[in-house]
User: Fold these one by one.
Assistant:
Number 1:
Amino acid sequence: MSLAHAILGLLQQEEMTGYDLKTSCFDQCIAHLWPADQAQIYRTLDKLVEQGWTTCKVEIQRDRPNRKVYSVTEAGIAELIQWLQCHQPLPKVREPLLIQLFFAAQLPNEAIIQLLKQQLAARHEKLAECESIELPTLGDQSASREQILQRLVLELAIRREETYIDWLKTAIDAIRHQ
Amino acid sequence: MSLAHAILGLLQQEEMTGYDLKTSCFDQCIAHLWPADQAQIYRTLDKLVEQGWTTCKVEIQRDRPNRKVYSVTEAGIAELIQWLQCHQPLPKVREPLLIQLFFAAQLPNEAIIQLLKQQLAARHEKLAECESIELPTLGDQSASREQILQRLVLELAIRREETYIDWLKTAIDAIRHQ
DNA sequence: CTTTTATATAGGATTAATCTAATATTAGCA
DNA sequence: TGCTAATATTAGATTAATCCTATATAAAAG
């Protein structure tokens, strides 16, 4: 599971609690990349400890629940590096809109166009979100190795949205002039 | 759930058994659009009957298990048409490769490039699959309404793969000349 | 003075997807 | 003669994702 390895990757950069992972990683930079909710993160941390890939120091606090700070073990780092090099199968994308379009023949043209326009708006919004993330551009000589890789990931996210927007426009046109 | 509505859409074109749905729809034209396995299809058919959206005629066969032929009810058609017009949320795409790239900083360049090349090959393969599906092109005046819509869906699938391939080439280049 | 936000974790429940095995018969192939 | 593929359905099990609730307290906001 990639979530486990994403968590290993994050903990390797810095030891953290489940709460930290959620609020400063999965709600921020990784949000558009690999969404995960609190329950998933805590349960995955438990599994990582079971596997021996992370350890957990409990910091006792009187005023609130104890903090459990997780860090990666040697075995965890080995596992991460090994996983990073394994070819992963292409994800299966299930797109409700495509099912709708596939069976839309009995809808009037305006109804189909309305559907496509709603998607177009949603895609524009997502593109704007991606573009608001600040990272050095690809040509930038001062960018670190990490930054280049993160930029590449962001670059795909942006291109993906642009492809959608383009296609939606083509589709609206095709249905209009049909 | 879109699977239920995809099945309604298919049954509306023609009444069918669960086996037919699997072998002549979900393994063929819908395969790259909404993969579904046999267990899911049968269970969804049960749910559709419960909901009153389909009915089921049992054809008794002596030599093999009875065929259960499903067809859509009035209520089912109403439900489908209503669903076809509802804005669906954008799917969340979880791409293991992006997690890998995001944390790939400690890998040597050749390892990263190898990973990207494997993806490139897989994407080329998928693109070829999409391109092998025969449907009238978008400009074709003789195309039916159904065919135009199906062409549009296919068009997106193709563009999606092309975007990937382009991006993978850029990424390989960026890492090489880093 | 009350409500919200932040800190921090645990665990039950549900849905969707995937895998697996069981059942039963015919037809074709080697 | 024995094996495999095709036809057709049922059901158990597991994993992943999502939601929701519970617990506990401090600080800030209104």
Note: The helical segments of chain B are 2-13, 18-26, 38-51, 74-84, 96-102, 109-131, 145-176.
Number 2:
Amino acid sequence: MARRRRPRGGAPLAARTHRLHPVAMPELPEVETTRRGLAPHLVERRVAGVVLRRPDLRWPIPPEVVDCLPGQRIVDVRRRAKYLLLDTRAGSALLHLGMSGSLRVLPASVPAGPHDHVDLVLPAGRVLRFNDPRRFGCLLWQPAGQVHPLLRALGPEPLSEDFDGDYLHARSRGRSAPVKAFLMDQRVVVGVGNIYTAEALFAAGVSPLRAAGRVSRERYGRLADAIKGILRHAIARGGTTLRDFLSPDGAPGYFEQELSAYGRGGQPCTHCARPLKQAWLAQRATVWCGHCQR
DNA sequence: CGTATTCCCTGCACGC
DNA sequence: TGCGTGCAGGGAATAC
């Protein structure tokens, strides 16, 4: 039963023979795409009931979801970081898709399948169905006028004006953690996960291993611009690939062939053709070009 | 405080 | 073809 210890530190691993598959992991663009797809079907609708098929996802689903939500009218569907908030007068249902979660609006007559953990019953014979095989997601409750503890310490939204190179530069002084870990810290900036961090570092020419405090203001400017550009592109892409807005099932913002770094360890760099390096950093697979990223 | 590590969970790729 | 193993990931919790 010995749990194998993953290789740690910056030591590059041998190139993998198998491919990493960027499946529909909900990163910020996927959550935003889901929000846009769902909003027209939820706003101004009244929740008629809640069907819990499993009492817990990542955490137990609090009784307020069952006790307070039914009868409430959804007045807005918002996103904060990778959380979706279904606002009502009584409070907000707080949803996180984790790694494998998806939300769909379906006719209530569609039988629930495996991992269909929760339905919010909507008017006109429809339900909002939450499916999450790995159960890293959550459904929580935020009373009106309060901010849920999970949302209190979050950093700025990456697409907001509060987020730019100067902000990153100021926040990173004295930090010895690798810049990749720094960028993935939700207290620094929200919603920038493993895929998009790897792509932004590649685009900006910054090594993921470099200490966050040792990245210049100018390079942080390039990083912030890269993060914004990549996220905007992925959101736009999500909007175009989401054919059936009744089923916002996490259409990936990126197609595999658009990725320059993520999942391409050992393959040639798209700039210099040298093989991309891969290592474990902050408990995540990290791919970068040792020549183009410094 | 910052940093590093562990853990939660299941589907799938892979090797035998 | 079937079975066992390892790995993917967000991010909270924990340890230092």
Note: Chain A is about 25% helix and 20% strand.
